[in-house]
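can u pls check wat happens w/ zinc ion
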Amino acid sequence: MSARTATLTTAKRSVRGQVSAEEWRIRVDLAACYRLIAHYRWDDLVFTHISARVPGEERAFLLNPYGMMFQEITASSLVKVDFDGNVLIASEYGINLAGYTIHSAVQMARPDVACVIHLHSRDGAAVSAQKDGLLPLTQNAMIARAFLAYHDYEGIALDLGERERLVEDLGDKCLMMLRNHGTLACGPSVAEAFARMFTLERACEMQVAALAGGRELTMPSEEVQELVARQVQRNSDADRPGELAWPALLRMLDRQDPSYKD
Ligand SMILES: [Zn+2]
């Protein structure tokens, strides 16, 4: 842990006593998710955002304090806002308005969603700019494509009017390429949203590497692509890969720096 992280995390007051046990649990998971995105180097300075719905409160969600690096975010530092953008628990940090637009749109339209992740990773943004989008070049890509939607770029997401078009494009999918911009994943828990984003981001990395490899590529048949789509859609409710991997991911964070739980 760096000295800077230590100063920030110990200087912050814990909000644990001000929130429900359920809210505290989701705060810890969400802070862990920010640390994991930083660990895999998919962050973009203090920009981009991950949100989680506050359990038991229909119109409230948590966002990153705008100005903190993902690797220094803690459970207590997350900013609680409502669907109108009002800050519900006072914070010295504000929120990213484009983040509010994107996350309030998905959180309002999709009651099945507990967590939304939006990134500007290098390879996610690179594939978002490729006309053919995510190609079925790898198993990761074929899995991601079964849940993948696309949304055209409209400028920095400050126009609340974009919310309608964004959720219309997302439909009932859980992954989206924001063209010329980045990636988005959502899920019924922080763990599932993270696992889905991991599949998409890895698929984008593999595509960029394969296209840069300078050798002729082999594309799986349409038949096998459709088979994979059926296999993952059939298993998506029963299989919770995120829940399986999440405790191990938290153990990894605990070995590195457990201050996300502060
Ligand atoms: Zn963005």
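The two ends are 14 Å apart (CA to CA).
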